[in-house]
Structures are given as C-alpha cells and as structure tokens.
C-alpha cells in the first residue's frame, strides 16, 4: 500500500492571509495524522509565503508519522534539514519565483551537486528523494547521484488525465519500471486528486508514497478533513 503524506502548505497559506494563527498548522497536521495520514509534507519556500521557518521546527516537534521536507537545496534548506532531521528530504529544482513546482531535475546536468547533497543527507540519516519527470535519462541520472527515491512529478499526468488517461500514464509506467529495476524507491506528487489518484496507483505497482496538498485541502472544504483523508486512503489500498 502506498503511503499518503498530506502536504499542509495550503493550511499555512490560509493562515498567512490574516497573519494570525488560524488555522493552526500544527493542529491540522496532528489531526491529519489522527485521521490516518501516514506522513506530513511541507515545502518551506524562501519567501515563506506559506510554510515559515518556525513552522518547520514546530511541526518537527509533533509529527509522529513520516516528516517530509521538500525544497531547493540551498543553504537555508539544508540548515532546516540538518537541524530537524526529517524522515525524508525531497529535493525540488524550483527557483525562488515559481508559482508552484513545475519541473523535475535534470539529474545529468546537476549530477555533482545532487551527489554531494544526497551524500550529506545520508550522513544525517535522512532519506533522500529527488523530484523528476519521466525522462529515462533523468531516472538513470537519479541512480547515479545515490538518491534513495525519486518523486515522479505528476503535473503532466494530472493535466492530461481527463483527455486520455492511458496516454497520460504511459511514460510514468515505464519510468517507474526503470526506477524499480535500478533499485530506487518511487514517490509521486503534484496535482494528484480524488479524480486521478486511483488510476495512478493501480498503474504504478511499486508506488511507495504520494504527497498531496492542493486538491486534498480543497476537497476538505466540502467533505471535511477526516472524510477527505479517508477517501484518499481508500484509493491507495
Ligand atoms: C514539489 C511539489 O510537487 C509541490 O507540489 C509542492 O510541494 C507544492 O508547492 P506549493 O504548495 O508551493 O504549490
Ligand atoms: N510533492 C507534491 C506535494 O507535496 C503536493 O503537491 P500538490 O498536491 O499540492 O500539487
């Protein structure tokens, strides 16, 4: 069964709109776990537009499942990881100005940098993951840098799911097979939803974890957080 890690960025987005502490990100993360989430994901961006540095440390004190910190591995990010030692650090190639993550790493071009970062993470006892598209050269490159897992960038899958789900999943099936054959663990995320998750899960047999935020928090507005999490968990069985 693939684990569900709930990304709580959007909870912080709502909180920051008023500058106070409503909704409380720590409480929501604890409730996500109480409702069955098997991990909490955050992406502390440099501009702190949602998750702040303080949130990273506050969540570290309470998360009892898997704590996954995503981000571009600059000095700030690496300090956060060193000081909190999460279960997993997911390296994302986002520049500081992107609206949201919109591409995976070129693991060939950034081989030296990624190798150094992954070896540092291993030294700290933090599982490493890198965000990649389905291009086989990036999957092979991921193996070369010594990372533990890939996180498949599922934005393109989600974008094309409704028009032709078999075409949308095709490259993910081959990328996941290649990654599995290379001994890499397989995570996935970005724009996964109640609509497209079941087919993704059924098509990718070795899926270890999905991290889901945007759609899940939007669904919770209508269904409530507990019912929403249970629905996502059901699709991952
Ligand atoms: C790495 C990734 O896939 C992202 O989905 C990310 O964590 C979302 O970031 P935002 O919440 O800032 O859009
Ligand atoms: N790694 C993907 C993630 O954490 C959540 O992405 P999204 O569901 O907010 O698109």
Automatic annotation (TrEMBL):
UniProt subcellular location: Cytoplasm
Site label Transition state stabilizer, positions: 151
Top-tier EC class: transferase
SUPFAM superfamilies: Pyridoxine 5'-phosphate synthase
Family matches, as InterPro entries: Aldolase_TIM (IPR013785), PyrdxlP_synth_PdxJ (IPR004569), Pyridoxine-5'_phos_synth (IPR036130)
GO terms under cellular component: cytosol
Pfam family, one: PdxJ
Enzyme Commission (EC) number: 2.6.99.2
Top-level taxon: Bacteria
Single GO term (MF): pyridoxine 5'-phosphate synthase activity
Catalytic center residues: 43, 70, 190
Record-annotated membrane-spanning stretches: none
Pathway connected to this protein: Cofactor biosynthesis; pyridoxine 5'-phosphate biosynthesis; pyridoxine 5'-phosphate from D-erythrose 4-phosphate: step 5/5
Quaternary context: Homooctamer; tetramer of dimers.
Family note: Belongs to the PNP synthase family.
Protein name: Pyridoxine 5'-phosphate synthase
Organism: Brumimicrobium oceani
């Amino acid at each position: 069964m693939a684990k569900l890690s709930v990304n709580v960025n959007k909870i912080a987005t709502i909180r920051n709109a008023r500058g106070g502490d409503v909704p409380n990100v720590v409480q929501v993360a604890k409730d996500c776990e109480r409702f069955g989430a098997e991990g909490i994901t955050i992406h502390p961006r440099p501009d702190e537009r949602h998750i702040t540095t303080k949130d990273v440390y506050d969540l570290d004190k309470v998360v009892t499942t898997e704590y996954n910190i995503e981000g571009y591995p600059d000095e700030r990010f690496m300090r956060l990881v060193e000081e909190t030692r999460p279960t997993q650090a997911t390296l994302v190639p986002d520049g500081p100005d992107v609206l949201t993550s919109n591409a995976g790493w070129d693991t060939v071009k950034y081989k030296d940098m990624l190798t150094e970062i992954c070896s540092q993470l291993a030294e700290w006892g933090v599982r490493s993951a890198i965000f990649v598209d389905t291009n086989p050269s990036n999957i092979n490159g991921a193996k070369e840098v010594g990372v533990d897992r890939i996180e498949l960038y599922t934005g393109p899958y989600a974008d094309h799911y409704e028009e032709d789900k078999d075409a949308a999943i095709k490259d993910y099936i081959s990328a996941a097979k290649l990654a599995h054959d290379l001994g890499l663990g397989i995570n996935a995320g970005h724009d996964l939803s109640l609509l497209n998750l079941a087919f993704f899960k059924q098509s990718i047999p070795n899926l270890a974890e999905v991290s889901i935020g945007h759609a899940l928090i939007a669904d919770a507005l209508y269904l409530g957080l507990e019912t929403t999490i249970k629905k996502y968990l059901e699709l991952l069985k």
